[in-house]
Specification:
about 400 residues; alpha/beta; Purple Acid Phosphatase, chain A, domain 2; 3 domains; 6-stranded mixed sheet; 8 helices
């Protein structure tokens, strides 16, 4: 049986630019949605029986209704009309720590062809078995154990106990399945060859709950979401393949290939690459005797419909000689661009330009105080999300 696996869609992610006033959606967020739709259409064209979302369908447990409607209209209902089952596995972004809290993925439980997974379980289609492992917080696993055994577990042991509990459950369930076995989950599996990204940006947070390779049972294939970079790894029991995200979510992913998997329950699979909006990082250094405008214009590539992050370094006093109107004219065909100006002089206090725009103030503050911080991109991302919510 062939089926499709996607992951890390992050519908509802906020981008602080090219936002439609009527809908509140950034055109960049629609890039992500369009690639998700492409995966859906591929499944329909191939007449697959199953379409799996292996975690992080949404950016957070509750997103704006319009994002839920986009998924309903363009993904859930077309797949249903084509007779394709849809499995939605909870990821760390759409799995609240408390089950009583509502979550956006719950909206689709009413469809007969959709199943939402928040707890580990087994499903069988024909003679093929699927071991399903949604993202679980250690506190959730410990709470279940306490309810089942009636014994209190010290919270300092929660991480270790949760790891062992998942290992035991996976091993037991794998033995119960006789036939092809596919593991579907949303976890970071610790492995010495795992690449979190092609760049230094990481979607994994310090201290995050991980699975050790020895926890995986013998299966035909283990498919995981969570890591945005598509790749495959091997353990003693299974081949692990990460689907990767369907579009580049952050600048840390600017060179990553994006797509989804077409999988056979025997364990064979192929990666279907999706088109992505090109992201360009460019650094330009202007020397003392060079014309800054001419130098910058000469090094700007074709940027039509591309994203650009431009860093310009120049001697003190040269900034005022830059014809920023000409620069802006050259960059006007870019989908979006941002420029960082660095003057090679003693450190100055304050902002290079006066502005009262909240997003620019926040960005300048982070650049000034956290330029070398390993989580700078993540701080910016979450900060912009909070500002967008407050300013609506």
């Amino acid at each position: 049986m062939k089926f499709i696996v996607t992951a890390d869609i992050h519908e509802g992610v906020n981008f602080p630019y090219k936002v439609d006033i009527a809908t509140g959606i950034s055109a960049r967020a629609l890039d992500i949605h369009r690639n998700f739709v492409r995966a859906c259409k591929y499944a329909i064209e191939k007449k697959t029986k199953l379409f799996v979302i292996a975690g992080d369908l949404f950016e957070r447990p509750n997103v704006a209704p319009i994002f839920r409607e986009l998924v309903r209209r363009d993904i859930i209902e077309p797949l249903g009309k084509a007779g394709i089952k849809v499995w939605i596995i909870a990821g760390n972004h759409d799995q609240p720590r408390n089950y009583e809290r509502s979550s956006s993925i719950e909206d689709f439980r009413g469809y007969p062809h959709v199943e939402v997974f928040r707890k580990p379980c087994i499903r069988k289609i024909g003679e093929d078995y699927f071991i399903i492992l949604p993202y679980l917080h250690p506190e959730q696993i410990v709470s279940w154990l306490e309810e089942k055994t009636g014994k209190e577990i010290p919270r300092e042991k929660a991480y270790e106990v949760a790891q062992q509990t998942l290992k035991n459950w996976l091993e037991r369930k794998a033995k119960e399945c006789e036939g092809n076995k596919i593991l579907l989950g949303h976890y970071y599996v610790q492995h010495h060859k795992l690449k979190l990204s092609e760049t230094s940006y990481s979607v994994v947070l310090p201290g995050e709950f991980k699975l050790e390779p020895y926890a995986l049972p013998k299966v035909n294939l283990a498919i995981f979401g969570h890591i945005h970079l598509h790749q495959s790894l091997r353990t003693s029991n299974a081949e692990i393949v990460y689907t990767g995200s369907v579009e580049r979510i952050d600048w840390g992913e600017f060179s990553d290939a994006k797509g989804f998997l077409e999988v056979d329950t025997s364990g064979e699979y192929k990666f279907i690459e999706l088109p992505c909006r090109e992201m360009v990082k460019l650094s330009i250094e202007v020397k003392e005797k060079e014309n800054p405008t001419a130098k910058i214009l000469s090094l700007l590539p074709d940027l039509k419909e591309k994203l650009l992050r431009l860093e310009i370094t120049l001697p003190e006093g040269k900034r005022k000689l830059v014809d920023e109107v000409e620069i802006a004219r050259k960059l006007s065909e870019a989908f979006y661009y941002e420029i960082r100006w660095n003057e090679t002089t003693e450190e100055k206090i304050g902002f290079a330009e006066y502005t009262m725009e909240p997003a620019e103030l926040f960005k300048s503050f982070i650049e000034l105080n956290y330029a070398e911080h390993e989580k700078k991109n993540e701080i910016l991302k979450h900060g912009f999300e909070i500002l967008n919510e407050v300013m609506r």
